[in-house]
Amino acid sequence: MNESWKSYPSGSFFDELITPQGQPRAAARGVVRLLQKLPGHEMAERRAAAELAIQEMGISFTVYNEAGNIDRAWPFDIIPRVISARQWQAVSDGLRQRSLALNHFIQDIYNQQKILADGVVPADIVLESSNFKPQCMGMSPRFGVWAHICGSDLVRDGDGRFRVLEDNLRVPSGVSYMLENREITKRVLPELFENYSILPVDDYPSQLYQTLASLSPRERRRPCIVVLTPGIFNSAYFEHAYLAQGMGAELVEGRDLMVADDNCVYMRTVDGPVRVDVIYRRIDEDFMDPEAFRPESLLGVAGLMRAWKAGNVAIANAPGSGVADDKVIYAFVPEMIRYYLKQKPLLASVPTWLCMREKDREHVLKNLDQLVVKPANESGGYGIMVGPHSSAAVRRKFARLIEENPRNYVAQPTLALSTAPTYIDDAVEPRHLDLRPFILQGRDTWVTPGGLTRVALTRGSLVVNSSQGGGSKDTWIVEGKA
Amino acid sequence: MTMLSSVAERLYWMGRYLERAEDSARLVAAYNHLIMDIPRAAELGWDVLVRILDAEPVFYQQYRVGNEQNVLRFLMAEQDSCASIPFAVRWARENVRTTRDVLPEETWEQINELYLYVSDAAEKSVGRRNRQAFLEEVISRCQRVNGMLSSSLPRDHAHRFLRLGHLLERSDMTTRLMDVGTGEILGRAGTHDATDPLIWTSLLQALSSFGAYRRMIGPLVEAQEVVGFVFQEPLLPRSVAFCLAEIRAELKPLKNHERAMRILNRGRRKLGKLQTEQMSREALHAYIDEFQALLADLHDAITASWFHPDTP
Questions:
Q1: Three-class SS string for B226-277?
Q2: Which fold has domain A86-177+200-341?
Q3: ipTM of this predicted structure
Q4: Lowest-pLDDT range of A40-49, A62-71, A313-322, B253-262
Q5: Residue B167, min C-alpha distance to chain A (Å)
Q6: What integer pLDDT is reported at residue A2 of this predicted model?
Q7: Chain A residue numbers touching B5 (CB-CB < 8 A)
Q8: Which of B145, B135, B141 is nearest to B205 (CA)?
């Protein structure tokens, strides 16, 4: 065993690769054995090779600060995370079920609102949410599906059980990094692939293409699909371009599109206007159409909602999908599964206190130092308070925020997030991580084998977002014994 | 497969900037050779390079003297001067960054490597010792991108607009270079007999056409022959005639090409009328000026016809 692994602590959290006894878990045995045999200097060389590959492949994300935009190289840890295919199958089934129920819910909310009438979900939290878009009432997109691309964040608790932490139904990102991570691992640790049967991830773009193509309002052999990006300065621009290329679709900005008098969407091309069938929207719906939402938006396309409501163009995710992407609504997903699908939820979620409920709020305010408090309506890990890591001043601030706007806050127990061996400086140390699989739903439903593993590179930290010092790992779903 | 106007525009500029990076490197490399060969008395200044690239106003905002160090820093290492190699490379990369989805996968990697190389090496290469190696590396990396594109990019709109940018930039740089030979840019009066062949030879070298000249015309380098060769030789890929013929071939299949075609045909007629035998230096200089104006018109026509058409 090389030096870097010697002091790897085991037992304090659930570790993805190492048992509390310090042995590699069955599915990870091959990976761990091989990496432990690598001389220390070779670990460093492989890491350098990965960094070089990332630089050359131009994998970057954009970080905003006062000085302007900086393109940062994608932080990547070379030690893959390994999950057995059997275990993954159960998670995958759970995700499929969840996505189905969420789409039933959105379809119901913008049509009959039965779930509200039956009192399963309180009407006011849905109808008063800023994510509920009255403009979408009465719409019924193809297959009744609104959220075609869903990125759910999973964590594993102290027992190693997968739990859903949240569902991103607006414009979830990160899938291109999942694909690139695999490419990098193939380049820098090719020998790991010799004795493993690892489920490939690289057919994501074609799966996405099929999902989007199934939404086309016109029956055509090759519908015209575009990826709508806010532009080069968006932090996920790299991904927008990557997916457009993977699908052979056009990458467009708002100014490339227009809605004509016939309520159809056209893109401006060198051959004149060409009709668009499906828009994979990577801009927030509030900026999508200045006519229907924010009038000052320069990113959008005037009249897009009109075209969508006339059924002349499909938009993924459909405007209004965000109504199910809210940390208050999250608490009701198990109920939705029972209500719409008459099934038991297959995947656990995290107990959630809703500050809007008086009893819950009392509990939250009393136990702020134990809980994680989240705004109901933010993404990217912004505005979160991790109780046990917070100062008294921050807790006072959150107590005030909660009192002022209880609807906007939820709290969850601080989970003992799982860890995995991560190569930091010249030692292998445990770091906390999560997992974002992607669920595609159109005519069919499909779940990525694995997903994007994000890892908090700072010791003890639970925040995995790349904008806040997070990195990522290749995620392997492996079949059979290694 | 059609193409977004905005993408076509970026590809066009990518073609222009990549060609500009290569041609600028060629220009500096050839001049570098020339300066070592020329007798001291002839006193060719380095500021000639700035004039060829029409960059005098910008240059003199930053520098007081047009000496070797300043001019080469300006052309080889300055990130923000629009006439520099790093600037052209950066904008070629920026345009690829936003058109990755229509280009072969390796394009981004290669252009990004070129960018990283230039960012890293430019500053260290202004001095005489590393200069030539740097310029050669830039040229060969540009050629690598062009070679990869020409061997794997489907001959659709992506190729067409890249090629239009590339050809237009090449015609522009070629005519600029020829203007050096007219002496106007050199700013010298009197006879040029001793240095002329050296200058014309270095111009042919900058166009990577010296070998072709020797084979097709002969070993003696004479002004009129060179001008005729570089403007009118239909078989020479860097000649103006060749570029215009290729531009024509690319314009032909495009819808809405009438305006650009008209200007192009005007250029071809103008080229046909060039009589190098009796032409004075002044007349050649005036001719080149007019030709450059025509190329600018062609650029405007391309922009108006395909990149910013009126909303229908």
A1: HHHHHHHCCCCCCCHHHHHHHHHHHHCCCCCCHHHHHHHHHHHHHHHHCCCC
A2: Rossmann fold (3.40.50)
A3: 0.80
A4: A62-71
A5: 19
A6: 75
A7: 256, 268-270
A8: B135
Domain residue spans in chain A? 86-177+200-341, 351-413
- The answer to whether A69 faces chain B, any CB pair under 8 Å, is no
- Domain A86-177+200-341 shares a fold with domain A351-413: no
Q: pLDDT for A140-168, tens place per residue?
A: 999 999 999 999 999 999 889 999 999 99
pLDDT tens across A89-115, in order? 999 999 999 999 999 999 999 999 999
* pLDDT higher than threshold 80 for residue B128: yes
Given the structure tokens 């345009």, which residue do they identify? Answer: B95
Name the residue among B101, B260, B256 with its Cα closest to residue A271: B256
Q: Was domain A351-413 assigned CATH 3.30.1490.270?
A: yes
Give the bridge partners for A440, in sequence order.
Answer: A149, A446
- If residue B300 lies in a helix (H) or strand (E), which one and from where to where? helix B281-302
Interface test with A, best of B1, B3, B4 (most A CBs within 10 A): B4
B150: tokens are 């020409």
Give residue B28's Cα distance to chain centre. 12
Q: Could you tell me which residue, B48 or B41, shows the higher pLDDT?
A: B48
B79 DSSP 8-state letter: S
pLDDT (tens digit per residue) in B97-118: 888 878 998 898 899 999 999 9
* Tokens describing residue B44: 């060719």
Give the count of beta carbons closer than 10 Å to the beta carbon of residue A62.
17
Handedness of CA A305, A311, A313, A318 (dihedral sign): positive
Which site among A228, A270, A271, A299 would you substitute to test the B interface, given the most B Cβ atoms closer than 10 Å to its Cβ?
A270
- C-alpha angle with apex B101: B95 to B102, nearest 5 degrees? 80
Query: Quick one: angle between helices B281-302 and B157-181, nearest 10?
Result: 160
B255 to A271: CB separation less than 8 angstroms, yes or no? yes
Query: Can you give the residue ranges of every domain in chain B?
Result: 5-307
Is the model's pLDDT at B214 over the cut of 80?
Answer: yes
Report the SS3 class of residue A194: coil
Q: Do A253 and B108 touch (CB under 8 A)?
A: no
Distance separating alpha carbons of residues B71 and B48, to the nearest angstrom:
9
